[in-house]
Write a structure and sequence with these properties.
The chain folds into two domains: 124 residues, Leucine Aminopeptidase, subunit E, domain 1, CATH 3.40.220; 319 residues, 3-Layer(aba) Sandwich (Aminopeptidase). The chain is of the alpha/beta class and 460 residues long. A hairpin with a 5-residue loop joins strand 11 and strand 12. The radius of gyration is 23 Å and the shape is elongated. The strands form four sheets. The chain has an eight-stranded mixed sheet, with helices on both faces. It has a six-stranded mixed sheet with strand order 1-6-5-2-4-3. It has a three-stranded mixed sheet with strand order 11-12-16. The protein has 15 helices and 19 strands. One of its GO terms (molecular function) is manganese ion binding. One of its GO terms (cellular component) is cytoplasm. Belongs to the peptidase M17 family. This is Leucyl aminopeptidase family protein.
C-alpha cells in the first residue's frame, strides 16, 4: 500500500512524540528525567496550538512534544510535519491519538509537486494502529486537492472524466460517459455551458453497490467547470485568476466517493460529474438565450457567468429520477457565500432537517466546518422571468447564495432529501494542515454524516 507523503509503515529510528494540552503540561514534566524537564521549561514550551519542542538525549534526540492548545487537535497535528526536523521519523507515544494524528499529519505534509520538487522534506510519522479510516480520508482529501491544484491546461473535461473512470476501475464500479449528441439531447443546460469550448463537455457517471441488501442509494453531484472565463459576460483578470478551481465541487465529490467505496459504507452510490469548460467562441451561450433543461423547465440566461447552477440543474434532475435516499451536491458556486461566510465556512443549504442536522453535527466533530443558510421562500420570486420559466440569476443584487440554492431547488422533487454545499475550495494562505491551494472542504463532514446516518462501514 502506498502511503501519503509524511507517513511510513515503519522506521527503525523513530522517536516518540507526546501530544500535550496546557493543562497536562506540568504533570508530564514531572514524568521526565530532570535534564529533559529543565530543557523543556527553559525553551518556553507551553503546549500551545501547533507548538513543538524537542527532548534531548546524551546521543542526540530522545523525543518530541506537540502542543495541542485548547482545541482543534487535528490541525495541531498538521503543524508537526514541517515544524519538526526535516526527514526525521516519529511514532505516537499516545495510541489514543491515532486517528487525528494520522489525518492531520498527512494533510500537513501534503504539497502539490507535479511541476516542482519539494523544497523541504517533512518529518515522517509511523502509521499507528487504529487509523484505517483516517488514512482513507487523508488519501481522499489529497486526491481532491491534487485535482483542484492541477492547471486547466492539464485538467480539462476529458481529464476530469478520466479521473472518475480511474476511480471506478479501482473499486470495480460501473462507469459510463455521456457526450456529443446524447449530452445535448439529455442534458441540454450542461451541454450549453460547455458549448463554447473546443474541449467538449461530458458527463461522467460512476455507480457502485456495497452489496448490502436493501442499502439506500446516495447520489453525489459535482460541478466540474474545469475553467470558468465567465463566458461572454467575461470575468475581469483578477476574478479569473483562480478559476482552475471551479471544478472544486466535482473534485470533492470524487474524493468523497473514493472514501465511501474504500470504507465500504453500506450504501449504493451514484456519482455524477458534469465536466465542462465555460469559454468564449461563436458557439458560446449568450445573455438572454433561453435554454431547456433535462427537467423540461426553461431558463433565460441573465448572466453567462452563473453557469455552475445550469450544470447542476441537469445533474440534480437526473439524480432525482433514480429516487435516491439523499442527493448531495457540491460546487464553487457563488461569491456571495464567501461574502457572507468567508473562505473557511462553506454554505450548507438543505431541505431536510434530519440530513441537515447530520451534516452540521459531523462538520463540528470532524473540524470540517459548514454553516447552514436558509432556503428562504420569500426570495424565490426573484427568479421569475417573463420569457422563460425562470432566470439563472436573481432580479436583485442581494442574497446571491440563497437565490442560487433556490434555483437548484427547482430541480429537486418535493420531499426528496437534498443538501447543497457552496464551497470556496481553496486555502488563500498556508496554515497547519492546510497548505495554500486547493482544499477539499466538506468532504470529511459529509463522509461522517453519511457514515452516521446509514451505518459505520469499514468492512474492509
Amino acid at each position: 500500500m502506498t502511503l501519503p507523503e509524511g507517513l511510513v509503515a515503519a522506521a527503525a529510528d523513530a522517536r516518540p512524540i507526546h501530544p500535550l494540552r496546557p493543562a497536562g503540561l506540568a504533570a508530564f514534566l514531572d514524568t521526565l528525567p530532570a535534564p529533559q524537564a529543565a530543557f523543556l521549561r527553559a525553551s518556553g514550551f507551553a503546549a500551545k496550538f501547533g507548538e513543538t519542542g524537542l527532548l534531548p538525549a546524551a546521543d542526540g534526540l530522545a523525543g518530541a512534544v506537540l502542543g495541542l492548545g485548547e482545541s482543534e487537535e487535528l490541525w495541531a497535528w498538521g503543524a508537526a510535519p514541517l515544524s519538526l526536523p526535516p526527514d526525521t521519523a516519529w511514532q505516537l507515544a499516545d495510541p489514543a491519538a491515532a486517528a487525528p494524528a494520522t489525518l492531520g499529519w498527512a494533510l500537513g505534509a501534503y504539497r502539490f509537486t507535479r511541476y516542482a520538487a519539494r523544497k523541504r522534506m517533512p518529518a515522517r510519522l509511523v502509521l499507528p494502529e487504529g487509523a484505517k479510516e483516517a488514512l482513507i480520508l487523508a488519501d481522499s482529501v489529497i486526491a481532491a486537492r491534487d485535482l483542484i491544484n492541477t492547471p486547466a491546461a492539464d485538467l480539462g473535461p476529458d481529464e476530469l472524466v478520466g479521473a472518475v473512470e480511474a476511480l471506478a476501475a479501482c473499486h470495480n464500479a460501473q462507469f459510463s460517459v455521456i457526450g456529443s449528441d446524447a449530452l445535448a439531447a439529455g442534458f441540454p443546460a450542461l451541454f450549453a455551458v460547455g458549448a463554447g469550448s473546443p474541449r467538449a463537455p461530458k458527463l461522467a457517471i460512476l455507480e457502485w453497490d456495497s452489496g448490502i441488501e436493501g442499502a439506500p442509494l446516495v447520489a453525489l453531484c459535482g460541478k466540474g467547470v474545469c475553467f470558468d472565463t465567465g463566458g461572454l459576460d467575461l470575468k475581469p483578470s483578477a476574478g479569473m485568476l483562480r478559476m482552475k478551481k471551479d471544478m472544486g465541487g466535482a473534485a470533492i465529490m470524487v474524493g468523497l466517493a473514493a472514501a465511501i467505496m474504500r470504507a465500504r459504507l453500506p450504501i449504493k452510490l451514484i456519482l455524477l460529474v458534469g465536466a465542462v469548460e465555460n469559454s468564449i467562441s461563436g458557439c458560446a451561450m449568450r445573455p438572454m438565450d433561453v435554454l431547456r433543461t433535462r427537467k423540461g423547465l426553461t431558463v433565460e440566461i441573465g448572466n453567462t457567468d452563473a453557469e455552475g447552477r445550469l450544470v447542476l440543474a441537469d445533474l440534480l434532475a437526473y439524480a432525482a429520477e433514480r429516487n435516491p435516499a439523499v442527493i448531495i451536491d457540491a460546487a464553487t458556486l457563488t461569491g456571495a457565500a464567501r461574502v457572507a461566510l468567508g473562505p473557511d465556512l462553506p454554505a450548507l443549504f438543505c431541505n431536510d432537517p434530519v440530513l441537515g442536522t447530520f451534516i452540521r453535527d459531523a462538520a463540528l466533530s470532524s473540524q470540517d466546518g459548514v454553516w447552514q443558510l436558509p432556503l428562504h421562500d420569500g426570495y424565490d420570486s426573484w427568479l421569475e422571468n417573463p420569457t422563460a420559466d425562470l432566470s439563472n440569476v436573481g432580479s436583485k443584487p442581494l442574497a446571491g447564495a440563497v437565490t442560487a440554492a433556490l434555483f437548484l431547488r427547482r430541480f429537486v422533487p418535493p420531499g426528496q432529501p437534498w443538501a447543497h454545499l457552496d464551497v470556496y475550495g481553496w486555502n488563500d494562505a498556508p496554515r497547519p494542515g492546510r497548505p495554500e491551494g486547493g482544499e477539499a472542504q466538506t468532504l470529511r463532514a459529509v463522509y461522517a454524516a453519511l457514515a452516521k446516518q446509514f451505518g459505520c462501514g469499514l468492512n474492509l
